[in-house]
Each structure stands twice: as structure tokens, then as C-alpha cells.
Design brief:
This protein is an alpha+beta fold. The chain is about 40% helix and about 15% strand. It has helices at about 1-10, 10-30, 40-70, 80-105, 115-150, 165-195, 305-310, 345-350, and strands spanning about 205-210, 215-220, 255-260, 265-270, 275-280, 285-290, 295-300, 320-325, 335-340, 365, 395, 405-410.
Length: about 400
């Protein structure tokens, strides 16, 4: 009897031995790690992988032989066509429930009502598109479920030869074309309104992206931005100001973005190194910052920060500028706070900002008879780079018996 069992079940015994062997090898490795060198371990791991692969192949071969025996197949009498149709119906039903829950049950996690004038129209366009496409998705998936269930395979059923239907094809071609045309025209209208020239009274704010921060610049009292040149960018001149242009000497570079409510704001967008993207989600603003290709986006804020805090019942709320272009490891840190205030508060804030450029300190002249500090005879001419106006002093030239002039170096 034992011999007969071994003969008829030898394939199962082989599989059982192969399944136990890898675990035995692992236990041997844990029991005597010092006795196994790296070469032996590599060989054992390679053998283990081969045995596992062989085990899987043998198991699949066993299943193939089992299912070939129709009389002993436990699934032989299962109607897989009906089962698949019901699984599809259940899958579609669960998907629709989850979609509805995500769209309405989690509504509180979505962005609040738009804080910009154009954002209201964008939200309407988005909701209209979602409504139209949602209805189409629901109808088509219900038809898909009905078709797969009603037309599943059955004995003695013959397929109907239905090569074409010109009227039906015209219907499902013309109807989507009309709907999509309406949606596209609505989108084009909103796009043209956003990309149109900004109003003359728009406040201009320049945003320059770099790894990994935003540089913010406002024009000074002359309402003109100073010239910049990328060749002049340095550790103390991040935007490459051309200080020979007086228009830039009153420009302001604050750490936050301030905007007056109900007044157009024009964002002039630049990038210093790689692709970045200006994203103001609460204002429905997004525009890429491309090196060498200035872009812009204008909008009108309609809710102050205080009003949004009251609406959301959250005193810690702040508008935010983020970057939505993965620009490197420090991408996450590209954030700036945006504050929307009244016109009067904005003017007061702007008045308190100090220009990025600070004038040089007057040159100090040492009289001829004054005693100069001792200098090493090997010293060379020096120049200490500094931000304009910083009190870093450099000696011009070597010390002579005449005069030595001290000055603030740009």
C-alpha cells in the first residue's frame, strides 16, 4: 500500500520536498552563519531561487493535469459566462458608488469657492464638463453591463450578423460632436478672457522661480521695473539687477505676496534655472515658468484673507503660492504666503517696504598726514563682493604716502 501511494503521489512528494528544502537552507544559514562564506551564501541563494521557480512550474503543471480531468474538475459545472457578467456588473456598481462618494461625500476636502473673478467661471465650466461627461459615463456603463449580461454565451444561441447601421453611426458621431463643440467654445471663451491684455490699472508682480524658492519683485514709486541681465546674477544679486538703470533702484523684493482686493493683478513669470510652475489654487491660477521664455497671468482677487478665514471658520488659513513642476529634491519647499488686503492696507504695506538696492555709503578720505595701518608688502588689490549698501569696506589699491580712499564696493 505504501509503495502504491508513493507511486501515485510521487509528484506531490517531490513538490513537498522542494517546498521544504528552501526553508531548511535558511535555517542552516541562521544556525551557523560563521561557517558559511559569501561564496556559499551566493550559491545557496541562487539555488533557492531556482528551486522556487521549479516549484511554481510543477504546481502549475499539477493544476493543468487536474483541470484536464473534466469529471474531477470542481469548476466544470460553473457557468463562467454568467459569473463574469455579474462580476462586471458588481465592479461597475462599486465604481459608481465610490465615484459619487468621492464627488459629494468628500466635498469638504475640495478647494473652497474661488477667490478670484475668473475662477468662478472656471468652476462653472468644470462643473458643466463633469456633469455632461458623468451622465455619458453612467449611461454607457449601464449599457455595457446590460449588453454583457444579456448577450452572454448560451447553448443553441446564434449570433446575429449586424454589420452596420448608418443612422446609429450618425447619431453617435453627431451628438458627441455637438456636445464637445459647446464645451470647447465655453473653454475658449474663458481662456481668451484670461489671456487678454490686462487692464491698465493692474498691479504688476514679478515672480522668478529658482531651485528652490520664489523671488518676488514689486516696482517702486516710479511703477517701473528695473532692467535685469542674467549675466549679472550672483550670490548678492539673485535677479541680475543692472544697477546702471535707475528704475530698478526702488524695486522691492519682499518675502510675501501682498495684493489688494478687487483690483487686477498681473503676474510676470520667469524661471532662472529649470522649469517651475506658478500655482495659486484658491485663485484658480496656474502658469508654467520657463527659462528664457517669460509668461504672464492676470486675475482679480475678490476675497481678502480675513474674509476667507471667516468663510472657512479657520483663523490660521492663508493663501499659498506653490510650485507644481517637479524641479528637484527641494521642490516641496517652493512655497510663499499670499495675503489679500484692502487697497488702503496694501498701500500702507508697500510704503513700509525697503528697496532691494541701498545706496553706497559716502567715501571716507584719510588725510595725508594720518597714520595708516600697517600692511603686508605682498598684499594685492582687493575687492569684496557685497550686496549694494552693505557696510563691507575695501581698500582701493596699495597704501601710498598720499591718500587712501575707502569705499563701499557694489
Amino acid at each position: 500500500m505504501i509503495i502504491e501511494f508513493l507511486r501515485t503521489h510521487r509528484i506531490f512528494l517531490i513538490v513537498w520536498i522542494l517546498m521544504c528544502l528552501p526553508f531548511s537552507l535558511l535555517q542552516a544559514q541562521d544556525a551557523a552563519p560563521a561557517a558559511l562564506n559569501q561564496e556559499n551564501l551566493d550559491f545557496m541563494m541562487m539555488a533557492l531561487k531556482g528551486l522556487l521557480l521549479l516549484t511554481v512550474v510543477l504546481a502549475l503543471n499539477i493544476l493543468r493535469m487536474v483541470f484536464n480531468l473534466r469529471d474531477s474538475d470542481p469548476f466544470a459545472r460553473v457557468d463562467f459566462n454568467t459569473l463574469n457578467a455579474r462580476i462586471l456588473a458588481g465592479f461597475v456598481l462599486v465604481g459608481m458608488i465610490l465615484a459619487l462618494y468621492y464627488s459629494f461625500g468628500l466635498r469638504s476636502l475640495y478647494l473652497p469657492e474661488s477667490a478670484s473673478a475668473h475662477g468662478i467661471n472656471l468652476d462653472k465650466m468644470f462643473n458643466l464638463t463633469l456633469l455632461v461627461t458623468g451622465i455619458v459615463v453612467i449611461i454607457t456603463h449601464l449599457l455595457l453591463v446590460w449588453f454583457t449580461y444579456n448577450n452572454r454565451w448560451k447553448e443553441n444561441r446564434k449570433a446575429i450578423y449586424y454589420p452596420d447601421n448608418n443612422k446609429l453611426e450618425m447619431m453617435w458621431t453627431i451628438a458627441p460632436a455637438i456636445v464637445l463643440t459647446v464645451l470647447v467654445l465655453d473653454g475658449a471663451k474663458n481662456w481668451n478672457s484670461i489671456m487678454s491684455p490686462p487692464p491698465e490699472d493692474a498691479i504688476e508682480i514679478e515672480l522668478t522661480g529658482k531651485q528652490f524658492a520664489w523671488n518676488i519683485r514689486y516696482a517702486g514709486s516710479d511703477d517701473k521695473f528695473g532692467k535685469t541681465n542674467f549675466r549679472m546674477i550672483s550670490a548678492t544679486n539673485e535677479l541680475g539687477f543692472d544697477w546702471s538703470d535707475d528704475s530698478g533702484k526702488d524695486d522691492v523684493m519682499p518675502g510675501e505676496i501682498y495684493m489688494p482686493v478687487n483690483r487686477p493683478v498681473l503676474l510676470k513669470i520667469r524661471a532662472r534655472d529649470v522649469l517651475h510652475s506658478v500655482y495659486l489654487p484658491h485663485f484658480r491660477v496656474k502658469m508654467d515658468a520657463v527659462p528664457g521664455m517669460p509668461t504672464q497671468f492676470w486675475f482679480t482677487p475678490i476675497k481678502t484673507t480675513k474674509e476667507m478665514r471667516t468663510m472657512l471658520k479657520n483663523e490660521n488659513f492663508n493663501y499659498e503660492l506653490a510650485c507644481t513642476e517637479i524641479c528637484g529634491r527641494g521642490h516641496f519647499s517652493m512655497k510663499r504666503t499670499v495675503v489679500v488686503v484692502t487697497e488702503a492696507e496694501y498701500r500702507e504695506w508697500l510704503r513700509k517696504q525697503k528697496p532691494y538696492f541701498e545706496p553706497e555709503a559716502p567715501a571716507a578720505v584719510i588725510p595725508v598726514n594720518a597714520t595708516a595701518p600697517a600692511q603686508d608688502s605682498t598684499s594685492q588689490d582687493s575687492a569684496i563682493p557685497a550686496k549694494p549698501g552693505k557696510d563691507k569696506i575695501a581698500v582701493a589699491g596699495k597704501l601710498k604716502k598720499s591718500t587712501v580712499t575707502l569705499y563701499s564696493h557694489n
